[in-house]
Design a protein that fits this description.
single chain; 5-stranded antiparallel sheet; 4 helices; alpha+beta; about 45% helix
Length: about 170
C-alpha cells in the first residue's frame, strides 16, 4: 500500500513539474526564434542591398538602385532561412509588403508578413548614394508544446506574435 502511495506522489510531482517546466522551455524557444528572425532579416537585408546595386553600377559615377533585384534577393534569402514560400509582393508608398507561407512540410511556423521601407538618397556634397532599408517582420507564434498550444487555443487573449525590426544602410561612394 505504501508503494502505491509513493507512486501517486511521484505521479503528482511529475504532472506539477511539467506544468511549471513546459512554459519555461517555451520561453526559451520564443527567445531562440526571435533571434533567428532578427538574424534572418539582417542577412536578407545585407544580401539584398548589395544585390540592389549591380557590381557594374557601383563602379559607375552614379550608382543606380534596382528594386526588382533587391526584392528577388531579399525574398529568396528570407524564404530559405525559414523554409517558406513567397505568396505575394505588394508595393506601398515607400517600400513593399511581402507575405510568406511555410512549405507544406514545414509545420513549425505560421505565415510571415515582412514590411520593407526603402529610402534612397544622393548626397551631392559627399557624392555618395545611400540606400536605407528598414525591414519589419511579424508572425503569430506557433507554440511548440501541446500544453502551451492547448492553453493558447482555449484562451483568445494568449496570442503571442514574433516581431523583429532591422535597419540596414548601404553607401556607395561615387
Amino acid at each position: 500500500m505504501g508503494e502505491i502511495k509513493i507512486f501517486g506522489y511521484i505521479l503528482i510531482a511529475v504532472v506539477f513539474l511539467t506544468a511549471i517546466v513546459m512554459p519555461l522551455f517555451e520561453m526559451f524557444f520564443i527567445y531562440r526564434e526571435r533571434l533567428m528572425l532578427s538574424d534572418a532579416l539582417y542577412n536578407s537585408c545585407r544580401v539584398a542591398t548589395e544585390a540592389g546595386y549591380n557590381y557594374s553600377d557601383i563602379r559607375k559615377i552614379d550608382a543606380i538602385w534596382h528594386d526588382e533585384y533587391f526584392l528577388e534577393a531579399f525574398a529568396k534569402t528570407f524564404a530559405t532561412s525559414f523554409g517558406l514560400d513567397l505568396l505575394d509582393t505588394a508595393p506601398t508608398g515607400a517600400g513593399y509588403i511581402l507575405r510568406f507561407r511555410p512549405n507544406p512540410s514545414n509545420e513549425i511556423y505560421n505565415d510571415f508578413v515582412v514590411t520593407l521601407t526603402i529610402k534612397q538618397e544622393y548626397d551631392t556634397i559627399d557624392k555618395k548614394t545611400t540606400a536605407e532599408v528598414t525591414a519589419e517582420a511579424t508572425s503569430p507564434y506557433r507554440f511548440k508544446h501541446s500544453y502551451m498550444r492547448l492553453i493558447s487555443e482555449s484562451n483568445d487573449k494568449l496570442n503571442y506574435e514574433l516581431a523583429s525590426r532591422r535597419e540596414y544602410v548601404m553607401t556607395v561612394d561615387n
